[in-house]
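User: Fold this; tokens only.

Assistant: Input:
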Amino acid sequence: MTPTIVISLLSSYFLVLILISWFTARKADNDAFFLGERKSPWYIVAFGMIGASLSGITFISIPGWVGDSAKQFSYMQMVFGYLVGYFVVAYVLMPIYYKLNLTSIYSYLKTRFGKWSYKTGSALFLISRIIGASIRLLLVASVLQLILFEDLGVPFEITVLASVLLIWVYTNRGGIKTIIWTDTLQTAFMLASVIVTVYFIGDALNINEKGGIIEGVKNSGYSRVFYFDNWLDGNYFWKHFLGGIFITIGMTGLDQDMMQKNLSCKNLKDAQLNMISFAGVLVVVNLVFLALGALLYMYFDQTGVGYNALKVIKRTDLLFAEIAQSGKLGITVSVLFLLGLIAAAYSSADSALTSLTTSFSVDFLKLEDKEENQQKKIRQRVHIGMSIVLVVTIIVLRRSTDDAAIWTLITLAGFTYGPLIGLFFFGILTKRNLKDYWVPWICGFVPVLIGIIWYLNKNGLISWFGKYQIGAELIIYNAIVSFISLWFISYKPKS
């Protein structure tokens, strides 16, 4: 595609988002910004959450994952774990949030343990979401830089600044009330992109008529799902499955971003229906993305298109981008890839920015205690501040890792959401109180300790049982050690 076409597509896309923002944000107040006035239809929330959950990382990183012979479709093992985790979120955590009528879910920790536990929970979320949102936007900004802005002489920093600025523009007034509807549109674009691309690649490989795409993927040599043969390996089934459960509990159930959407539903029943519906669809969608990955590698094997991403840059994340933008599959695939990529990125980044604003405003600035005429000004200033933080973090992270973005995100989640799981479930599963002042120290020390062990294990400096590799279960170690450590600063409440 020519730069003119790309810029026209980007401009048109964001114009639509701004129009949606204008319609939804009229007369919007803080309640609309934070919770959508608790009037969001559950089925709209469920559909939009698909895009927010998957993000640009899923869009291009998971298909790239498939080419590794040690991974292939192993990500589905984690997805099955996600499914179990969503039931825990729906029927254990969400009843607590609705019962307490929370705006920030971390307020539960204040009610249960005290202000230091509350601040710790919120701080862990802020760190998690800032880094997570930055990784997602970094990946997309890198692709846009590769296919457009590099040739125009635009510095990467300007690409990032423009991307975040556009998010700020359409989320500034309506917040979650706007995002519920923009995410719906963006999810539709993302799914259309991947489905159409699957069809066109299948057609190019002549497998649409030879037993169909399903049979073609099955026989591709890239479709192995289950890994039971070596429990020491990082891809061992139970590591992925159990890790997936904990990742969902942390990254969805204890995440202000994802829960903010659920809390915008009319009642608990609608929110639970939204969560379970969303979980079922997510399994199918992730399978489609992995099928796309197999097809991309089959296409590369047959045509050589994608050589730059795999052999020169050696970034599997960029394989989808290179093939889609090569023009070999037609202008339709190129256009839909670009729209799908942008949609996937912004459907997660916009809600991340809004949830960061919510958490910092409510948890640290005590917005609800301020006079009504001050609340909007404070919220808007925080919104700008969080936008700046995202820009700076993306630029800093640009050269931080060579791993696939999805694995980087899962690893970081283990260190931040793990202690959060330990803290929340200590409150849910026990009746003991905590010496509140010590909670930040425990939740800070445990990730550092586990991080040192993980680093030494990853680099072969320490080993157990031969060649045991820490994989997705990293989050479990952080959660369990946090839980046990909290026990040592706990006491029985006075009767």
